[in-house]
Amino acid sequence: MHINSKLPNVGTTIFATMSKMAKDYNALNLSQGFPDFPVSPELIEGVYHYMKAGFNQYPPMTGMPQLRERIAEKIEKSYGTKVNVETEITLTAGAIEAINATITSLVNKGDEVIIMDPAYDAYEPIITLNGGITIPVSLKQPNFAIDWETVKEKVNAKTRMIIINSPHNPTGAMIEANDLAILAEITRDTNIIVLSDEVYEHIVFDGRAHESVLKHEELRQRSVATFSFGKTFHATGWRIGYMVAPDWISAEVRKVHQYMAFTVHTPSQLAIADYLENADHYNNLGAFYQQKRDLFLDLIKDSRFESLPSHGTYFQLLSYKNISEKPDLEMAEWLTKEKGIASIPISVFYDTKEDNKMLRFCFAKSEETLTKAAEILCAI
């Protein structure tokens, strides 16, 4: 039997590949972005409480009302924006399902979607699955800033969507208020939808502020913003995220969402709703991860690796250009197999597979793990 693949050039994601390699070679896994420390006992107990209380059946397709209300309150506190609980907030099976449902519902065959390279590796396959055409625009080094002049050149009558991601995976770069102003100008009086991937919204460093599209009134009227409780509350395996969009967009995306996942785990939604009542649980996240970033950078300061600025996320880019001429995928495999530490090569995030001799390391790890990792890197 022959299968006519819809994704003939796509294999297993690099994150799964490197995590498996880390396990096979008993290496420290700083590749896939997940914490190696526990979820809050309070949050765990909350889930257990609601499971015992009998909240184990389907919640509403859009999410439990209690959680949507807490999300609306959080958005108003964080960004000064009021959103409609009933029509503008939808709980999803992780932010990835929100991204998938958004692209699936809004991108048709032949539509063009502009993404910023290096880009999270899920965007392009989802666009392709829906008959869209990915238009990559390379971020400007060394700060990985958006090249807005090139974006303007790429926009045409076929442009249906522009995807932005801040704080940015894999680089840790962040969008500024001026970037949103330029994006608003570019999309004004067009049919372009903005998809804003904001899963690391609370993981920002050095006194910076996350510039959400929800803060920009004009952009908000044409944008879908996606978020992740898994990233915020160290529970990536729970697969609970949400999207925020104006009612006319939400109504269309919900049509797809109801047949893609329909809903997410009821007791976890209720437990998260309770947990969100204490704003410290997310407002202190930046300081928590900045301490880990700073520790990791201090521990490797005498290594031959060169660190690039990371202003957000829990990822740190390291250049090995002073160490080896190996291609980055080969270097990542060598580090895993021979040195016992797994990372992600940055070329996989580029449409052109551009290789700048950079690797991404996840520092959402315990102090013990980061210390061991630094010992390995400093010995190279």
From TrEMBL:
<keyword id="KW-0032">Aminotransferase</keyword>
<feature type="domain" description="Aminotransferase class I/classII large">
    <location>
        <begin position="27"/>
        <end position="376"/>
    </location>
</feature>
<dbReference type="InterPro" id="IPR015422">
    <property type="entry name" value="PyrdxlP-dep_Trfase_small"/>
</dbReference>
<dbReference type="GO" id="GO:0005737">
    <property type="term" value="C:cytoplasm"/>
</dbReference>
<dbReference type="InterPro" id="IPR004839">
    <property type="entry name" value="Aminotransferase_I/II_large"/>
</dbReference>
<protein>
    <recommendedName>
        <fullName>Aminotransferase class I/classII large domain-containing protein</fullName>
    </recommendedName>
</protein>
<keyword id="KW-0808">Transferase</keyword>
<comment type="similarity">
    <text>Belongs to the class-I pyridoxal-phosphate-dependent aminotransferase family.</text>
</comment>
<dbReference type="GO" id="GO:0030170">
    <property type="term" value="F:pyridoxal phosphate binding"/>
</dbReference>
<dbReference type="InterPro" id="IPR051326">
    <property type="entry name" value="Kynurenine-oxoglutarate_AT"/>
</dbReference>
<dbReference type="Pfam" id="PF00155">
    <property type="entry name" value="Aminotran_1_2"/>
</dbReference>
<dbReference type="InterPro" id="IPR015421">
    <property type="entry name" value="PyrdxlP-dep_Trfase_major"/>
</dbReference>
<keyword id="KW-0663">Pyridoxal phosphate</keyword>
<dbReference type="GO" id="GO:0016212">
    <property type="term" value="F:kynurenine-oxoglutarate transaminase activity"/>
</dbReference>
<dbReference type="InterPro" id="IPR015424">
    <property type="entry name" value="PyrdxlP-dep_Trfase"/>
</dbReference>
